[in-house]
Amino acid sequence: MIGMPDLAEGYYVESAEGLLFAVKGLIHPPGAVVAYLRYVPDPGGKRERRGIRYRRLYHFGEQEELLREKCPDCLFFDPVFGETLQGVPRERIKQVYDPCLRLAELRQGRSLDGLEEKAVEFANLLAEKAGVSEECIGISGSILVNLHTSGSDIDLVVYGVENCRAVHGALRELMGEPDGEVRRLSGEELRALYATRSQDTPMSFEDFAWLEGRKVIQGKFRGCEYFIRFVKSPVEVEERYGDRRYISLGRAKIEATVADASEGIFTPCFYKIEDVRLVEGQRAAPLPVEIVSFRGRFCEQAEEGERVRARGKLERVISRGGEVHHRLLLGRPGDFMTVIEEIAPG
Question: What confidence score (pLDDT) does residue 4 get?
Fold first, then answer.
């Protein structure tokens, strides 16, 4: 499809060993695709396809431990990103799973299960409400690789900046409709989500519930939980692999005011910040000018004018031309971002 990303966020790839990975971001090193392990063949797994049972891996630690054992080539240090990444060498990719193609196939299907039907209906509703082409929306997650169960989430992905903003606005309108088909998560549902998220992203339940309760990228459609990723198309991303180098300056905790949250709905998400104060970290460490994350959980995390506290990896970013700035990257277990001061009314 014209303008659709090649191996972008939302896609999955299967390695020669039969491991299933979720592709991360739009920028990949030559000869490999940055992707994180999601499903592994396991006789004791609770999901099955093509006669093979699979187990879902949720946490970085267990993902990396398994890769070191079964596929060490899928853990590699990248000199541009300055860290060890999960990914699949391109010559080891056995199959690519395209979210837009999968959703198109489901639309043509005649024997869909209940979750697949709801996924198609939800995608069609969003496209119609937002006035965008159905082709810019795809299905990711377990449905993409046919490992879903009746209790799985609906994971959609939208490509293209204008499409993303239109669908995001449509979601907000749909959530505002009384007795509508789209609603926010309830307190009990948020507590269940917190039990999972808080293992990697520490914060109080009160802060978590307040932050997640105002988001529209996740919620429920006709009783099924959903999560939506908004992803730019390649032509909308100027950076190419190697245009910038990222150098770790260690861990840091900061407080800052969000100056621009307009990129906060996308994966990866970006928040421009000002009035930055270093709370924890090396003395005389340079102050970051942005907070960045490739994890969907940090999308819609803060709004312009809000004061936030965040912990992550402080990085120096150096362009080919020698320009330098610093950022706080959120992504590893223990990283967080929470609002400590809301926007003043008026």
Answer: 36
Rounded to whole angstroms, how far apart are CA atoms 8 and 12? 9
For the chain, the maximum distance between any two Cα atoms, rounded to a whole number of angstroms, is: 63
Q: 140, 165, 202: which is closest to 7 by C-alpha?
A: 140
Q: What is the pLDDT of residues 7-25, one digit of tens each?
A: 999 999 999 999 999 999 9
Q: Tokens in use for 329?
A: 């990257």
CB-based contact 215:225 (threshold 8 Å): no
Alpha-helix runs per DSSP H in 176-250? 187-197, 205-213
∠244-247-248 over CA atoms, to 5°? 145
Q: Taking Cα atoms as reference points, which of 171, 182, 98, 99 lies closest to residue 128?
A: 171
- Class of residue 324 by CB neighbours under 10 A (exposed 0-12, middle 13-18, buried 19+): exposed
> Which residue ranges form the domains of the chain, and what is each CATH number?
12-96 (no CATH), 99-234 (no CATH), 243-341 (2.40.50.140)
Terminal-residue alpha carbon distance, the chain? 45
- From the centroid of its chain, how far is CA 174? 22
Is residue 5 predicted with pLDDT exceeding 60? no
Residue whose C-alpha is closest to residue 233's, from 8, 23, 29, 30? 8
Q: Which stretch of DSSP H or E encloses residue 70?
A: helix 60-70
pLDDT in tens, 253-298: 999 999 999 999 999 999 999 999 999 988 888 999 999 999 999 9
CA-closest candidate to residue 265, choices 307, 199, 218, 310: 218
- Coil vs helix vs strand at 173: helix
Report the predicted TM-score, pTM, of the whole model to 2 decimal places: 0.94
